[in-house]
Amino acid sequence: MYEAFYGLKGKPFQLNPDPAFLYASRGHKSALAYLKYGMYQGEGFIVITGEIGTGKTTLIRSLLEQLDRQKVVAAQLVSTQLDAENLLRAVATAFGIPVKTPHKAELLAEIEAYLTALVPRRKRALLIVDEAQNLSPRAVEELRMLSNFQLGNHALLQSVLVGQPELREVMRSARMKQLRQRVIASYHLGPMDRQETQGYIEHRLARVGWVGDPQFDAQAMDEIYAATGGVPRRINTLCNRLLLSGYLAEKHVFRGEDVRAVTAEMKDEGGLDLAVSQEEGSPALAEAEPAGERATAYRAAGAGRGHLAGDFHPGQGLELAGGLGSSEGMDPVSLQQRLLRLERAMFTVLDLLSELVRKESSGAPGAKPAARQREQG
Ligand SMILES: Nc1ncnc2c1ncn2[C@@H]1O[C@H](COP(=O)(O)OP(=O)(O)OP(=O)(O)O)[C@@H](O)[C@H]1O
Ligand SMILES: [Mg+2]
Predict the structure, then answer these.
(1) 139 Cβ contact partners less than 8 Å away, ≥ 6 residues apart
(2) Which CATH number fits domain 194-269: 1.10.287, 1.10.8, 3.40.50, 1.10.10?
C-alpha cells in the first residue's frame, strides 16, 4: 500500500521467512557458521535454538538454498506435532521414500535402504526438523535411532533440530543423554542489538530499492529497538505499521515520537507483542532504563551463544571463548566490555574453524577440525 508512495519495488517487511531478505547480523552469521561446521562433520545432530521470531526458519531456508544438491539430499519436516510412529513416516515422506508398510521395523528398513543407496552416488542425507520444541521425547528418541544408521564408519543421516527455547529444556532432560552425546554443534540465536536493528531495517528496505525515503532519525531507531528488543519479526510488524502511518500522514521522515505513537496504538489494539517475558530479559516498552543496558542484561542472560561437540550444556556456550567467569555484582559497563571481548574471541574461533573447513574441503594440507570427545551412546 505504502510502497508506491515511498518509491519501493516491493514489500520490505513481510512476515514470511524469505531468505532473499537475509541480513547477516552477528548472531545469524554465527548460527550459519555453526550449521556449516556441523554439516562438515556429516553426522550426529546440530541444534539451533532461539527466541520466537528471531529468524531460525529464515536461516534454515537460507542454508537449504546454499546446499550443493549434487552432494546433499535435504529433507525438511514442517509439521512437528508428531508422535514417534508418525515421525518415521514423515521422515520417509520428506525424503520421497514410498512407504508401503504399516510396520515400524519394515519402515525403518526402507529408510535405511534409501539412505544406504545414496552412498555409492556420493550423496548424503540431511534431515531438518523445524519447530522441534514440539517433538515428544519418544519422537526425539526415534530420530536418535535414525542417527545410528551407518555404512562402515560412515553415518547415513545427519539431523538439524531447530526450535524455540523449550527445545533446550527438552535437551536438558535426563532421558536425552544419549542424544546430547551426538550433538556436534549447537547455537542459541538471540535478538539483535541497537546497531544491528538499524542495519536490519536498512537492509530490508534496500532490498526493495530504498534510497533514503523514508528517513529514520536516530531517536526513531532507538524507539524501534526499545519496542522490539531487536527481534526481527517484531521489527517487521512495527515497521510495517510505521510506514503505513507515514503514508497516511504523507511523512517522509520518522522521528522518535512517530514510533512511540504507532507502538502505543498497536499496544492498545493488542497487535504488537511488546511485552517480553522475564526469561527473555529484553526490554518492554514501558521500562525506563536505556536500551544499551537492557541489551547487556539480555546478553548476560545468554543470548547468541554456541557450543561445539561433546555433551550439550545449555549454560556453557560462552565458555567456548574462554569463560565468562562470575558476572555477579559486576557493573553493566564492565560486564558489557567483558562480553564484547568474549564475543570477539568467539568470532576468532569461528574464523579459525571456517578456515579449517575451507582447507579441508579444498584438500589442502592442514590441521584436522577440532577433535570431538564423543562417547558412544
Ligand atoms: N536475519 C534475518 N534477515 C532478514 N529477515 C529476517 C532475519 N531473521 C528474521 N527475519 C524475518 O523475521 C521474521 C521472523 O523470522 P522467522 O520466521 O525465521 O523466525 P523464527 O525464529 O523461525 O520464528 P518462530 O520462533 O516463530 O519459528 C520473518 O519475516 C523473517 O523474514
Ligand atoms: Mg520458525
Answers:
(1) 82, 83, 84, 86, 87
(2) 1.10.8
pTM, rounded to two decimals: 0.76
Q: What are phi and psi of 254, to 5 degrees?
A: -105, 135
Superfamily per CATH, domain 26-189: P-loop containing nucleotide triphosphate hydrolases (3.40.50.300)
Res. 62: pLDDT tops 60: yes
Q: Sorting pLDDT into bands at 50, 70 and 90, what band is 269?
A: confident
Task: Note the ligand closest to the C-alpha atom of 189.
Answer: 1
Q: Which sequence spans correspond to the domains of the chain?
A: 26-189, 194-269, 332-376
Residue nearest (by alpha carbon) to ligand 1 atom 30: 17
Indicate which ligand has the atom closest to the C-alpha of 51.
Answer: 1
- From 30, 58, 161, give the residue whose CB has the most ligand 1 atoms within 8 Å, as the site to mutate: 58
H/E element holding 359?
A: helix 332-361
**Helix, strand, coil fractions of the chain, as percent rounded to 5:** 50, 10, 40
